[in-house]
Amino acid sequence: MTERHDKLDVAVVLVNEGYASTAVGPIEVFCAAGTMWNEMCGADSEPRFRVTTASIDGTPVQSAYGLNIAPDRAIADLGPVDLIMVSASGPVPDEWMARHAAIPPWLAERYRSGTRIAGVCSGVAFLAEAGLLDGRRATTHWGVAESFRRRYPDVYWETDLLITEDAGLYCSGGVNAASDLSLHLVERLCGREVAIECSKALLLDMPRPSQSGYALLPLARPHDDEKVRNAEHHLSRHFGRDVPVEELADLAGMSRRNFVRRFNEATGQMPGVYQQMLRVAAARKMLEDGAPSIEQVGLSVGYEDVAFFRCIFKRHSGVTPSAYRDR
Q1: Cβ atoms of 225 and 232 closer than 8 Å
Q2: pTM above 0.85, yes or no
Q3: Lowest CB count within 10 Å: 45, 74, 151, 287, which one?
Q4: Rounded distance, CA 69 to CA 141, Å?
């Protein structure tokens, strides 16, 4: 007998002068989860989400390019939900935020009641305006990153990332990252298998890790040392080979000793350990995606000695590669 699952309630918040695709795209992803792939394979449809749309006052909104979208209700009339996703606007000047001033305190109240909150692209500003992101990691579109850093200085902006997740708060980069974030949330809430089936049915790639297209998730604590951050990016791009400290020091224009001190102060790790962590993060991703050979995974991330790879992996993950793959 097929296991049945309770539907999760999702509310997508519509904003005036926003980007329609950042509302419609997530709606389609959530509605496709458990349905579209099943139907294509001749199986029973099993919807995983119940999706509602809302605007500030329940009236239609007009997108940045003139598309009118009618919501189901006003945000004040929205019942309990499991997840709220705020669609994207353009840049966020003071007068635009003032016209949407009802949204941030409403989000803060919902978050305090246990609701997960997600923001797409510049829609992340609503989470920041509510104070929800203070002291937490977040991302947004690179084009508004500097203005957001100035407006919300207490947020740890990691705008190289396409998606961030911190304490039930989810943020994504550009407009097209709405699909990445939606699939990420499907995976978080329904499991990887459902997310993969959803991505196949919609011909979407599973979420990318970064806006640059190549970096792994930065592993360090947030910091403002740009020279160290550049070294981290260099390590992320070249973690598959041994990167000597001298190479990183030259890149930063420092002596070896000064670089190691700065790197450790900024990241909390020595450069060699940081590279190990990058390699293990990449190995975990390969194992999550079903890589059959532990030896090949080790080689792919830069370890020719499989016994040493297993040792390093267990040191940073707490379990062996085989145990991690079998979870």
Answers
A1: no
A2: no
A3: 45
A4: 23
Please tell me the CATH code under which domain 8-202 is placed. 3.40.50.880
CA-to-CA distance for 88 and 143, rounded, in angstroms? 13
Mean pLDDT (the chain) is 87
Q: Angle CA(65)–CA(52)–CA(61) in degrees, nearest 5?
A: 25
Average pLDDT over residues 90-117: 89
Domain boundaries, given as residue ranges, for the chain: 8-202, 226-325
What sign does the CA torsion over 9, 138, 181, 21 have?
positive
User: No. of H helices and E strands in the chain?
Assistant: 15, 11
Q: What percent of the chain clears pLDDT 90, i.e. is strictly above it? A: 51
Neighbours of 24 (CB within 10 A): 18
Return the CATH superfamily for domain 226-325: Homeodomain-like (1.10.10.60)
Cβ 255 vs Cβ 249: under 8 Å: yes
Measured distance CA(174)–CA(159) in Å, rounded: 10
Spatial separation of the C-alpha atoms in residues 19 and 22, rounded to whole Å: 6
